[in-house]
Structure formats: C-alpha cells, structure tokens
Amino acid sequence: MLEQSQTPLLTALKNCANQPDTAFYAPGHKRGQGTSVLLTELLGNQLFKADLPELPELDNLFNPEGVIAEAQNLAAEAFGAEQTWFLVNGSTAGIIAAILAICGTGDKILVPRNVHQSVISGLILSGAIAIFLQPEYNINWDLAYSITPEIVAQTLQQHPDAKAVLMVYPTYQGICGNITEIAKITHQYHIPLIVDEAHGAHFNFHPDLPVSALKAGADLTIQSTHKVLGSLTQSSLLHVQGNRINRERLSQTLQFVQSTSPNYILLASLDAARQQMATQGYDLMSQTLSLAKIARTEINNIPSLSSFGTPHFESTSGCINLDLTRLTVKVSNLGISGYKADEILRQQFKITAELPSLHHLTFIISLGNTKTDIEQLINALKTLSIQHPPTTTPSQNFFPTPHNLPSTPSSSCREAFFAPTEQRPLADCIGRISAEIICPYPPGIPVLMPGEIVTSDALKFLQQVIALGGKITGCSDPNLQQLKIVKG
Length: 488
Fold this sequence. Notes:
four-stranded antiparallel sheet, 16 helices, 37% helix
C-alpha cells in the first residue's frame, strides 16, 4: 500500500514556485513578472509563479521517472488500476489515443451511437470502421440508455474480427449499463473493452455508487476528474489493467494528442484530487449522495416536475444502475423546453444546469455542492412550476431526439471527412452523405457524423434545437441553412 496522503507532484510544484529563480526559460511571463496586470488582478501572483515548465524537479510527462511517476502510481492504486496516465488535454485526448493505440485503417470497433464526438475524431484519425450499436431508448423521457450485453454479443458474432468494444459508462444522465456482462462477452473474443467513463471518476469511492469500470472488468477507461471531482478543467485520467492493451503503444499515441508543454498546474490538480479522494472520498461521497437524495425527494413533490430514475431500475434488458448524484429533471410538462427553463433559472435565480435539452435539465451534484445550493435549486424549481402551470398537452410540439439513427454508415468517418465535398441547402442534403460532425453541445453527442446518410428526422431535430435556444457545433454554416456533404 502506498501512502495516499502524499502529494509528490503538488509538493514539488509548490517548492519550485516558492524558491527564487532567475528564469531564462518559457513561459514568457517569467513567473508572473511579465503578466498583464488585468490578468494578475483576476488570478493573483501565485498562480503564475507555479506556471512552470519541465524543470528537473518536476519530471517529464512523456518519460516520467520522478514526481509524475510517483503521482501516477498513487492514482493507479486509488482508482483501482494497474497503470494510470495523467491527461492535460481532457478525456478527449485519452479517447482518441486509446482508439489510435488499438485500431488502424480498416479495423472494426464496436461503438454506441450515442458516443461523444471525441470518438468520431478518433475514428477519423485512425481510419477505423465503426460498427455502431443502438442503445436502449426511453421514449417517455427522450433518453438514451446504454448498449446491452445482448446487442454486443449479437454484433460480435457478426463481426468476430472486431479489434475492440467501446461503451459509454455512465451516460451524461448517469445511466449505467450492464458493464460486467459486456466485459465478459468482449473478453470471450480476446479483445479489450474501452470505457468512456468521463462522468464516473467518483464511482470507486462509495458502495452506493455504481461499480467502477475497472472493477467491472474494463481494460481501459478514461475519466474526467474535473467533471465530478476536484481537479481543474481539462485534466483527466486514463487507467489500464490486464494484458489486452499495448501500453507502450498507448504511451506513444498519447504523445500524439497531448501538448509537449503540459501545464503543471493541471497536473498538480490531479495529484491533489487523488489525495483528497483517497483520504476523504467515502465521506465526501456520502455527503454528496445525501444532498442528491434531498434534491430528488423535494423535486418529485413539485407539481408537474419529476426527476429521473431510482438506484436500480428496469430496462428491456433487465435491471441497470443510475448514478444518483446526477439529477435529470423533466420540465416539458410545464410547456417549456429545457433550453427555456435553463434560461429562466440562470437569469432569474443565478442557477445554471450542466445540460439543458429539449425535455429536461441535468444537474451535476458533486463534492463541491452545499445544502444551500440544493435549497436554492428546489426553491427556484418551485417558482418555475408556479410561473408555468401544467399544460394538458405538455410536449406535443417537441420533436423527439432521433434515436434510430443509422447504425451502418455508407462510408467510414475518415473517408467521408477527407472526401471532396460540397455545401448544399438542407433540402438537397436528405439522402446524401454527411461530411460534418454536427451535434448539440453540450453534451457533444453527434446527430450527424461524416459517412452517415442525412435524414429528415435528424435535420428536423437540429432545427428545433436552434429554434428553442440550443446550440449546435461542427456545422460549417452556424445557422444550419446548408450542410457540407460528400460530392457525387
């Protein structure tokens, strides 16, 4: 057992920041001496003293032998991995690197259709062929669940030459599929299970949370510690166990997608967040779960509002789990969209949701929230319910998320992305091949991606997102009057 109270990287950075040094090295602000006064007024001097490069005392992210190696080893033990890598380009970098490490041009990989756009980037860069799997879908809530063991087994029978299976666990709304069975099925084919666990970095620290991906048998998992724990934005962790991942190749592909000038403040925040969870994680998660329970109970008592799910709930494939620190509240029964509700909460009550969508709002309750936060949220939602009395036809004007999107693109993401393209009005694009990654953001799940056939349902949904106040990314025409499609 390692001494989890230690913070080798954070301590080394603190020592370097506080010792005198005449700097003839980058960054150009020279420990804050050349920083804009406006920026210093906002952030203070100490941050810039700690904004240091790869000094001998601070180790090297791409060849760690000192304090970074120690910090990564401590993180591996705390999160239940055999080996851990620190990420400073977010979980996006980890997902892309994982795909590049496992798949080459023409290799098949099983992928849920509700993946983050970073997976599509990985497909484009690697040239891998996605075999898309449709997740279960709850039409009453307009929510995608997880892929099922059954669909994974059926698809691997059809594509036994696949190089890997990738799954999202949990979803943005905290829904957790049967990862243990999916891992078993995947391993029967002697291939790895990759898990986008961006929203599940806290799972290993409390028994009332869903099982962590590593405990369930995943081979490689990527966690956005900044989303639910205490590290800084853009910092994440990548964990590996077992022998199905070529770790040397993974280290190489991580160098492709990470900065050669990693920010040591981000790296140190990972060290600090690990130490916090390793020494206080159970208590912090107990407190967080308690707050989430209060919020869920109170919200379910507000007329025409309801929160999604229970710890274990039934789907067509059996009982699956929910992360109860993730709170999804349906507002469409009030006759307003989630985008409108988000605007009201932010402008009138200074409360901001993590994810507004057509029918609901999703809130992250984490170790940083307080009882006062929960009380303010409940009071704001009560007022929202009064301001917008229940309607007898709550959501008839909302076009549902197109959940039966193409599962077999007509060409690979890479081929479509690099193919000759043309920009055409929407009406001319139906039935043609998309050359763009177009998705509402957040959460960044593509509605159209390169290689997929453009459908009228997808276009109606995207137009509605914009009309109701949502944002889309990836479209060369930000007003969505035209699309970029493959020529021919």
